[in-house]
UniProtKB/TrEMBL annotation:
<protein>
    <submittedName>
        <fullName>TraE protein</fullName>
    </submittedName>
</protein>
<dbReference type="InterPro" id="IPR007973">
    <property type="entry name" value="Pilus_assembly_TraE"/>
</dbReference>
<keyword id="KW-0812">Transmembrane</keyword>
<dbReference type="Pfam" id="PF05309">
    <property type="entry name" value="TraE"/>
</dbReference>
<feature type="transmembrane region" description="Helical">
    <location>
        <begin position="20"/>
        <end position="39"/>
    </location>
</feature>
<keyword id="KW-0472">Membrane</keyword>
<keyword id="KW-1133">Transmembrane helix</keyword>
Length: 203
């Protein structure tokens, strides 16, 4: 019997209905699996910040190195260009970015520095020279020259490095670590190359 003739019979209709049910159930399972996969997949956002010439990628809990370098440069320039007039603004600007673990210590340190800047009427400017991201430690290093000058003094120019750990929480940057020192970036490679200090074991 030909297939077309068989489908015209009652048994043919029953067979076709059963086959259709199997196909419908299979499609339903595929739709459910696809929906679950789409719901659990972390969404990526592609941005082109004004300070960069190319795209950077940000997800809910991570970001590309270019994104972190951009934020590190922004924070270094924000903290490194301070005058008595804008000192209070800098504290307000950085406060929302601080992680809870360093919130109080950073704000206390900034409060002390702001008092000293206002008392001595010192203007500080930072010129960045290099921005590096170290994947091993998730640190961003921004190094350059810091110039400070009081009202009746000559400019004092020193090397300066800003060291940050920038995490991503709900697509937003969060500053989890900050260190500032008059030295070259303390990367893992450089620390291994330095001679051990007295009483210190070389790793």
């Amino acid at each position: 019997m030909k297939l077309s003739d068989f489908l015209q019979t009652w048994d043919g209709h029953e067979t076709e209905n059963r086959f259709s049910r199997v196909i419908i159930i299979g499609l339903l399972v595929v739709c459910v699996i696809t929906s679950l996969a789409a719901w659990r997949t972390e969404r990526s956002i592609i941005l082109v910040p004004p300070t960069l010439s190319h795209e950077v990628e940000v997800t809910r809990t991570s970001a590309s190195s270019e994104f972190k370098e951009s934020w590190g440069l922004f924070l270094a320039e924000l903290l490194g260009n301070t005058t008595p007039a804008n000192a209070d603004f800098l504290k307000t600007a950085i406060e929302p970015l601080l992680a809870p673990d360093i919130y109080r210590s950073v704000l206390d340190a900034m409060t002390d520095q702001i008092k000293a800047i206002k008392m001595d009427r010192v203007a500080i400017s930072f010129t960045p020279r290099h921005v590096d991201y170290e994947a091993e430690t998730n640190k961003v290093f921004v190094s350059g020259e810091l110039k400070s000058q009081g009202p009746n003094s000559k400019p004092d120019i020193k090397p300066r490095t800003y060291e940050f750990i920038i995490a991503i929480k709900n697509y937003r940057p969060r500053l989890e670590f900050i260190d500032v020192y008059p030295d070259a970036p303390r990367t893992v490679e450089r620390l291994k190359a330095l001679p051990p200090q007295p009483g210190e074991l070389k790793p």
